[in-house]
Amino acid sequence: MKIITAEEFAKKWNDRTEIDTNEAALDETVLEIIRTVREKKDAALYAYTEQFDGATLDDLLVPEEEFSEAEKIAAPELVTALKEAAENIRNYHSEQNEKSWMISQDKGILLGQKVTPIERVGAYIPGGKAAYPSTVLMTIIPAQIAGVEEITITTPPDKDGKVNPYVLLAAKLIGVERIYKVGGAQAIAALAYGTETIKRVDKIVGPGNAYVARAKKWVYGTVGIDMIAGPSEICVIADAEANPRYVAADLLSQAEHDESASAICVTTSKEQAVAIQKQVAEQTEKLERKEIIQASIETNGKIIIAKDLTEAANVSNKIAPEHLELMVEHPIELLPKIKHAGAIFLGNYSPEPLGDYFAGPNHTLPTSGTARFASGLGVYDFVTRSTIISYPQEAFVAASESIKTLATVEGLTAHANSIQVRKDEL
């Protein structure tokens, strides 16, 4: 794991290029998949599932027998863990519930906001290199709290045409049984435009690979999306007193996601940097996903030495990481200096996996620096807000000339006329 100074990091950061030479090819592939699904519907989904997942399906919908099989093989401790996590997630997200409101002003004016649940939501649950029952809980529970009536899950099957049993178990535990065996860009297209089997939705949420992320970008506007998620990221700010074993373990917890994941530590101590570097190497050798971790660390891993915690915070704010751990002696004191992060973990015993699985806050978080302007998934992502305006006659007349003046300045005379015809009647 490379060790660099904050100055070296700043130069590399300022000189970085955002050009991805593979983007054009990726877009071409994704757009072709979307066009084919729109044209051939279910037939395209069956064909792409065979092509990309190696599975020949008779039906896209997961049958009840698969849910029953999943329940039979589930260890009691897994069921308990999922139930506990679901309760924590539900309790946390219940605090995010928004309410409609109305205020009364002078002259009988009423202004307000009406909060309405989105009608149909599609949740994409990734497959491939790992199974994500936790993502089922994180994407579905906030939608349920918001009051979404129709929730559909799509997830890729394995080569035998089966969906991961733990994904099914998590879905069944929270009351979702409409799951389709479709993955990749073709699943996003099906949710956005509909097929004979899959009903089109109003919004698509959930993480996925580069094809899924790109497809979400292209269907946005036809449907809403939560975000365009990139590879997973972690940044740990560690002072000289931090435990290097803990720091290294937390960095590796994100590096194991995939080869493009980013694991960065910012420390105020050169000796600490060397100790963390050593721990990363030692712990990597003992982990099952060693090859993925090594590729991630080699490409995107680094330890940055800052002169003090203020500079460390500034480095983190430039990165705007998905996950940020403040592994320092007084994390609460450093917290005000943090401006941009998807989720912030305070102290030695609040590691990132606590947020991934159990604590309650959502693990679907902004990546690739988008924490500068975006937030993690929440109940507020599953509602719309309609403003309410009510002016009685007296208030309308009092405001009419000002409205006409503004409309005339903008050259929108029909707007002004809409006001004038009412004044003429009066």
TrEMBL record:
Function: Catalyzes the sequential NAD-dependent oxidations of L-histidinol to L-histidinaldehyde and then to L-histidine.
Matches recorded under PROSITE patterns: HISOL_DEHYDROGENASE
Keyword annotations of the record: Amino-acid biosynthesis, Histidine biosynthesis, Metal-binding, NAD, Oxidoreductase, Zinc
Identification of the protein by name: Histidinol dehydrogenase
InterPro entries linked: Ald_DH/histidinol_DH, Histidinol_DH_CS, Histidinol_DH_monofunct, Hstdl_DH
Superkingdom field: Bacteria
Catalytic activity: L-histidinol + 2 NAD(+) + H2O = L-histidine + 2 NADH + 3 H(+)
Stated family: Belongs to the histidinol dehydrogenase family.
Amino-acid positions noted as binding Zn(2+) in the UniProt annotation, renumbered to this chain: Q254, H257, D356, H415
Cofactor note: Binds 1 zinc ion per subunit.
Residues at which NAD(+) binds: Y124, Q186, N209
Any one of the GO BP annotations: L-histidine biosynthetic process
PANTHER family membership: HISTIDINE BIOSYNTHESIS TRIFUNCTIONAL PROTEIN (PTHR21256:SF2), HISTIDINOL DEHYDROGENASE HDH (PTHR21256)
Pathway(s) where this gene product acts: Amino-acid biosynthesis; L-histidine biosynthesis; L-histidine from 5-phospho-alpha-D-ribose 1-diphosphate: step 9/9
UniProt binding sites for substrate: S232, Q254, H257, H323, D356, E410, H415
Cofactors, names only: Zn(2+)
The keyword Iron is assigned to this record: no
GO molecular function annotations of the record: histidinol dehydrogenase activity; NAD binding; zinc ion binding
Catalytic site positions: E322, H323
